[in-house]
Amino acid sequence: MLRTLIIIIFLGTFLPAFNQEKTDTFLQQLLTGKASPLLQHVLSNPDSFQYQIIYTEINRDEQNHPHFIHHYLHVDRNRYFNPASTVKLPTALIALEKVNELKKFGIDKNTTMLTDSSFSGQTAVVRDTSAATGLPSVANYVKKIFLVSDNDAYNRLYEFDGQQILNKQLWKKGYTDTRIVRRFVTMTEEENRHTNEITFAEKEKVFYRQLHSYSQLSFDYSKQVLVGKGHYNRYDSLINTPMDFTRHNNLPLEDLRQMLQSVLFPESVPEYQRFNISKEDQKFLLRYMSEYPSESIHPTYDTTEYFSSYTKFFLYKSAKQKPPANIRIFNKPGWSYGYLTDAAYIVDFENKSEFMLSAVIYVNRDGILNDDKYEYTEIGYPFFKEIGEIIYTYDKNRKRAYLPDLRNFKIRYNKR
């Protein structure tokens, strides 16, 4: 009898952590207590909007070491959402990690990277007019990924990483639910397993050649994922069945948040979970995660389209609202198929405030995917803006035992 009771207690203690969504009263009360009618409507319908929110308090100790407290609202790693461009964060990190491992061949992130066409559906790249040199490189691709979430830049780094290496490296770091199996261009599953031959060279000198590769990884597609009630296919025909995301990319919100923490505060995570990049590369990442398109010289962007907060969902996401000088956001967002996602570290240098905020929402009232009729402007962006404002106001005013020293996050940006 006693043994049975112990087993029941054990199961009751540990099973919910794996089988139930994470929600805590504090975050729920904080948001609902300050919410506008629109946000109240969203918060009251978690099944319709499929939202997940993580607010991470950061408390410094006497030595300025950060300590993290995570607050959750409807966070469930088993609830699928399309991660869209958020997969560009780990893809860029693995690319920088791979370059770091290839330094013995005399290359770095600025070395010219020439991409060949090695299999059906592939394209070659030998020039990059957005770069200061006019030539492609890992560095310029990473810049474009964070400045404007450039899809071609992601495709090129996906090809450099290789599908097999990209996923195996992430799984080794503990991100076993993460799956990155697609470029952002129309290709078959087989074509996405093949990645291009790539050469690193300067003028006539070849430093390193990476041969065409093929991924032999097995992925768990046993759980079918169907979204919506209908969708348009690649031929613009309406198919009156849900869209199947079973074999698409997958990146749980908790994993995305943890990856961002690993870059910002590498000493705060276990060694196996850190990305093998140099201090110089970390500073490089911090710059382009937080720089606005208007501050970039190479690449240069039309700021009427790529406004300052183009990739900043929290607090702003408006062409008319310019972020104040005392606030910087280090983040990676994604938007596709009615899903909006962002994982961010937000710093207020003037008020000595810092916190992390991650969220996803689904806004697709008609249930049809690929029709470009999503409520991004009416519901999605206001959702991010308002929860950002509520958390920012709370975090700025809460008492801290030690104020953070934020000098590592103060960066000198270009001014055009």
- How many DSSP H or I helices? 12
Number of strands: 15
Please give the radius of gyration in angstroms: 22 Å
Mean pLDDT: 94
The CATH class turns out to be: Alpha Beta
The shape is globular
Query: Spans with pLDDT under 50 lasting ≥5 residues?
Result: 1-18
Fourth-tier CATH superfamily name: DD-peptidase/beta-lactamase superfamily
Question: DSSP strand (E) fraction?
Answer: 15-25%
Whole-number total of structural domains:
1
Q: For the largest sheet, list the strands in their spatial order.
A: 2-1-14-13-12
Main sheet overview: 5 strands, antiparallel
Distance between the termini: 75 Å
What fold name goes in the CATH topology slot?
Answer: Beta-lactamase
CATH architecture group name: 3-Layer(aba) Sandwich
Sheet/helix structural class? alpha+beta
H-E order? HHHHEEHEHHHHEEEEEEEEHHEEEEH
Task: Determine the fraction of residues in helical runs and give it as a percent range.
Answer: 25-40%
Description:
With 416 residues, the protein is an alpha+beta fold. The chain has a single domain, classed as Beta-lactamase (3-Layer(aba) Sandwich). The protein is built from twelve helices and 15 strands. A hairpin with a 4-residue loop joins β13 and β14 (353-362). The longest helix has 22 residues, at 376-397. The radius of gyration is 22 Å and the shape is globular.
Describe the structure concisely.
The chain is an alpha+beta fold and 416 residues long. The protein has 12 helices and 15 strands.
List its salient traits.
single chain; 416 residues; Beta-lactamase; five-stranded antiparallel sheet; 12 helices; 33% helix; 18% strand
